[in-house]
């Protein structure tokens, strides 16, 4: 296996003034974190609200610039990438966000949304390719002409996943991809992501505050608390013998029915 994402001693200090815990030096949202994701692996990042998960995930694809530390994708330091390198990064590392309605342009049809991804990278596409893309996320060709308000939350999240898949990324960063969805469709989206990992060999960094979701879906789990990773292990280990009090609290907060037998 080769390493697709490697973050070494990465920190992020937000320079905002005022507010609890925010002194003149700003607020340290991520504090010296190191993690790696191997090719074909799904790493789950779990932790309470405000622990720095989204900040860390956004540093992994250059949306947030670290205050210190190094982020490498496929062995390349993203701080040293030129314009072409950054383009390649955007192709290789795609994101799926929490709220599909907010992440899709309400004035564009699904066809336009998908075509834009290709055009942004100087590529053309065909209807057959777009239909195949939709089919890979379980949607029919008729969705091409729909606007976001003409689809359900689960269907829109499938469109967002199709958009992420368009350029055949090596890594998808999914930041709470199911928390805005009805419970009934959450499992469908998680199964879709698991299928993509298995069938297409895509790596995932999957962020969630919900350990039950992470467990269903990740090979390894990293637990964050107050900007630091306090425990890592296989999903199995984390559930069977959580070591850190924060991990134990997360396991205890997981409903019995969702724990492994
Ligand atoms: N742009 C920003 N400017 C200032 N502070 C920020 C910014 N973004 C996040 N923060 C703060 O950094 C901390 C970590 O936020 P982050 O969103 O990374 O955590 P999280 O674990 O993803 O939380 P949640 O699960 O609630 O989304 C929080 O205290 C948050 O208020």
Strand arrangement within the widest β-sheet reads 6-7-8-3-9-10
How large is the share of residues in beta strands? 25-35%
- Tell how many strands the DSSP assignment holds: 10
Please give the domain count: 1
| Element-level helix/strand string | EEEHEEHEHHHHEHEHEEHH
Estimated radius of gyration: 19 Å
Alpha-carbon distance between the two ends:
30 Å
Would you tell me the overall average pLDDT?
Answer: 90
Fraction of residues in helix = 25-40%
Going by CATH, what is the homologous superfamily?
Answer: P-loop containing nucleotide triphosphate hydrolases
- CATH hierarchy class name: Alpha Beta
Helix/strand-derived category reads alpha/beta
Which parts are unreliable, with pLDDT below 50 for 5 consecutive residues or more?
A: none
CATH hierarchy: architecture: 3-Layer(aba) Sandwich
Spell out which ligands are present.
adenosine-5'-triphosphate
Biggest sheet descriptor: 6 strands, mixed
């Amino acid at each position: 296996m080769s390493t697709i994402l490697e973050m070494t001693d990465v920190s992020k200090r937000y320079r905002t003034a005022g507010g609890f815990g925010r002194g003149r030096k700003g607020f340290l949202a991520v504090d010296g974190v190191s993690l790696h994701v191997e090719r074909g692996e799904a790493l789950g990042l779990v932790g309470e609200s405000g622990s720095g998960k989204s900040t860390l995930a956004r540093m992994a694809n250059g949306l947030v610039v670290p205050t210190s530390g190094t982020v490498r994708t496929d062995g390349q330091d993203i701080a040293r990438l030129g314009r072409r390198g950054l383009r390649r990064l955007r192709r290789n590392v795609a994101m799926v966000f929490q709220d599909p309605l907010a992440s899709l342009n309400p004035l564009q049809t699904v066809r336009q949304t998908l075509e834009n991804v290709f055009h942004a990278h100087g590529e053309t596409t065909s209807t057959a390719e777009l239909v195949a893309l939709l089919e890979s996320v379980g949607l029919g060709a008729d969705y091409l002409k729909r606007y976001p308000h003409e689809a359900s939350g689960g269907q829109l999240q499938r469109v967002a996943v199709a958009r992420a898949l368009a350029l055949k990324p090596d890594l998808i960063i999914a930041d709470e991809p199911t928390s805005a969805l009805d419970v009934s469709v959450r499992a469908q989206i998680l199964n879709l992501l698991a299928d993509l990992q298995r069938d297409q060999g895509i790596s995932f960094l999957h962020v969630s505050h919900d350990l039950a979701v992470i467990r269903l879906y990740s090979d390894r789990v990293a637990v964050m608390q107050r900007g630091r990773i306090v425990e890592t292990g296989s999903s199995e280990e984390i559930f069977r013998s959580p070591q850190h009090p924060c991990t134990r609290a997360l396991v205890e907060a997981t409903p019995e029915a969702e724990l492994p037998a």
